[in-house]
């Protein structure tokens, strides 16, 4: 069953040229700043050379690049909006040989959910019990052709440039998450902002109090190449 997110959103944004139709929206749980909002729109809407101007409909306040928390409301966007399709994540639990190796490397490195902080007990680790935890791809595995097209493998430094290898299963493209959070992550309802101190952002009702947390640094230690 698909999720109708419009019911619980307290922030929505619209093309000013077509104000009755929402382009999108989310729940503001407190961590999204005005600067974050502008960055999100710049990525989602693939804004070109034209300047991006965003204004709250009722107050007429213009969003600026500040660290002030974004006020809930309806926002009109004044810019040229492109129609490039977003990349949907497929939720799949099919395990291949590549996936097993990826899961093994991520589990051994992280040993806990990097967003909630829930640690897998050492006794479970020794008995290879990772129930309740899953290795999540940051860049979706099902869009490997897009990854190859734009040569994203150049950022992966922990794998050799083997012939035919895209490096999409690099440990640097993965996080260990609780199974339920993996599902929310794949639905784009949970994210990590690497440009804002690796801040965790929850775009839906924050039932677990994760919004505003910082991603555990174990996956980005300068002493660990993985």
UniProtKB/TrEMBL annotation:
Q: Which InterPro entries does the record match to this protein?
A: DUF7881, HNH_nuc
Per UniProt, what is one Pfam family of this protein? HNH_2
Domain HNH nuclease per the UniProt entry, residue ranges = 113-193
Q: Which domain of life is it from?
A: Eukaryota
Q: Domain DUF7881: where?
A: 8-80
What name does the UniProt record give this protein? Uncharacterized protein
- Which organism encodes this protein? Tuber aestivum (summer truffle)
